[in-house]
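Supplementary Text 2. Reproducibility record for the structural model of the 186-residue chain.

All settings were left at their defaults, and a single model was retained for analysis rather than an ensemble. We include the record here because the model underlies the residue-level annotations in Supplementary Table 4.
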Amino acid sequence: MNLETSIEYVKGIGPEKAKLIKSVLGISTVEDLLNFFPLRYLDKSKVHKVSQLHDVTTDVQLKGKITNIQEVQTGKTKRLSAKFNDDTGTMDLVWFQYSKWLKEQLPINQEIYIFGKINVFNNQYSMPHPEIEVEEKKDAENRLRPIYPSSEKLTKRGLGQRFFQTVLRTICKEIPNLIQETSLII
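Retained model, structure tokens:
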């Protein structure tokens, strides 16, 4: 692999995804990917407590346990609701669109990290569709998460933030092989 290599040869991309990425973002080479900079970063270095949520205006990360999961029927629609507890309080986690698989995968009574936007409804905090990481699988090095430009067309085809974060992490590991350092002899 070098800087002029087509992105279709990068692990995890292939010809179909490469064609889509090129048509939407104009990225066709490894060098283009290296110059595909994030719009911003999510800071996942701080862990909040439920009791601190009244001061929060951005996405937050909390550490605690899911203690109860239930399906709630409201008219014709169903949603999945769970209680999340830490040592300072309780809040609701909500999924408006979910599958049986998600319900079975939620870790009950296990230390987890959740991340997402906080909503307030009837003076009760809730987090719709939170990201969930089990504590032993938490990536300590991934505290600042890059957010890349995207589109609905890419996301629908599975080319979301995680995809670009993974591909760029793979390419960055190859930087010593991609770029030759020049030495100056005087």
